[in-house]
Write a structure and sequence with these properties.
InterPro entries: Tscrpt_reg_HTH_GntR (IPR000524), WH-like_DNA-bd_sf (IPR036388), WH_DNA-bd_sf (IPR036390). Pfam families: GntR. The longest helix is centred in the N-terminal third of the chain and has 15 residues. This protein has a single domain, classed as Winged helix-like DNA-binding domain superfamily/Winged helix DNA-binding domain (Arc Repressor Mutant, subunit A), CATH 1.10.10. The protein contains 3 helices and 2 strands; from the N terminus they run αααββ. By secondary structure, it is mainly alpha-helical.
Length: 76
């Protein structure tokens, strides 16, 4: 019996796909954790885990006090 993908992984994978497709470009500001939680109807901890996963994949970068942005791609 297949199990559903964890909500934080679904969010991270959706954002990662937008980054890879170019819909979200390097330097684009991402929504806050609170905004993501509201948009996806999840708890803030779930949205935080999604953002943490994207950071671990080096797809996003955080700037304290400013927000989270799509990371520059290597070689660009």
């Amino acid at each position: 019996m297949p199990t559903a993908e964890a909500p934080y992984r679904q969010i991270a994978n959706e954002l990662a796909a937008k980054i890879r497709s170019g819909e979200l470009k390097p330097g684009d500001k991402l929504p806050s954790t609170r905004e993501l939680a509201e948009a996806y109807g999840v708890h803030m901890n779930t949205a935080y885990r999604a953002m943490s996963l994207l950071h671990d994949r080096e797809l996003i970068t955080g700037q304290p006090g400013r927000g989270t942005y799509v990371a520059e791609r290597p070689g660009q």
